[in-house]
Amino acid sequence: MKNQILNSGDKVQAGGALAVQLAPFGDFKGEMNMPDGKTKPFVQHLDRAAFERIVEAWNAKGAPELLVDVDHGSCDDHGSTKAYAWASNLRVEDGGLYADFRFTDEGAASVNSREYRFVSPVFDLDKRGNVLGLDSVALTNRPNLPVSCVLNRESSGVNNVEDNEGKPNMEKILSSLDLGSDASEDDAVAAIEELKKKVADSEAAALNAEAEKFADENKDRIENRQAAIDLYVKNGKDVATAFLAAFKAPAAKSATPSATRISARNAATPAATVGSGDASAKISARNRAVNEYLAAHRNATHAEAWSACRLADPEMFAD
Q: Which pLDDT band holds residue 29 (cuts at 50, 70, 90)?
């Protein structure tokens, strides 16, 4: 028999097949009964993949008819298992999970008289609240999900739905952070901050390794290795390279430093002069070094020249 399409003024006939929405797409808050008798809050993520799992599991059982009771009476060991309808043809449509209901006489009368207006599914869940299958369905006036009314498309108006439009899926976020579905917002923030710290530490270690490699490759031009590393870390490779560009490494097996190296540019001055306390001679040597750097690097500022010379010959430029 072709499914009936009913409006609010129509009536359902006993035995007639009526398409009914069992659950919509979305994320919904719920509570899970634990073995110790306590309840655990969780979020049901009802997407197309979840509903397709339900249909696949149902079809694997041979697609039997599903009992539709009243107010989940069959879920209670001492409750009523009277059928008000039988559901079949479980499927996924644009609006969510659907089934065809064939009402008993009492079920049809209950719906037509508006004694019961909505349905409420009971899902099989894993320990994290993921939907595995469909256990039963009940006629009720207090649905656990915002399903459409049995006889029309009027919403149930329940307020436990999480409006997920334009918002992040917290279940997926908590899962990616290796946190349980019962984790708090503070737990998630703490986990994110810890990840940010690990990333920053990793980047700092990589930069320091680059700086050490730079210092090793230019060791013949550097008097103070740590100063070169600090310069690289703080200002980058280009700045550190610019400060060393004017200086050439000494020739192989040379008995004396290169004449172009700043620390040897004052070779004509007695060695004791620079460090002997003769301030005038020391200032003169510094100025010559800075001026030579500026002559070789016409675009450099005086501050850049001073820094480059001090890096090349810390002793001469020591205060």
A: confident
